[in-house]
Amino acid sequence: MTWITRTFGGLLLLVAFLLVLGLPVMMSDKLAIFSIVAMVYYPVLAFGLYRFFRYQKRLRKKVIRKIRVDNQGIHYERADGTIDQILYHDLEKYSLPDVYDVSFSPRNKMYVLNVKHKGFSADVDFDGTDAGYCYYFGNLKALRRRYIQGIVRFRPDLRINPMIYEVYYIYPADFTFDKKKYRTEFALTFAVMMIGCIVLGVIMLGLVKWIF
Question: Where are the beta strands (DSSP E) in the chain?
Answer without folding.
Answer: 64-69, 73-78, 83-87, 102-107, 110-117, 120-124
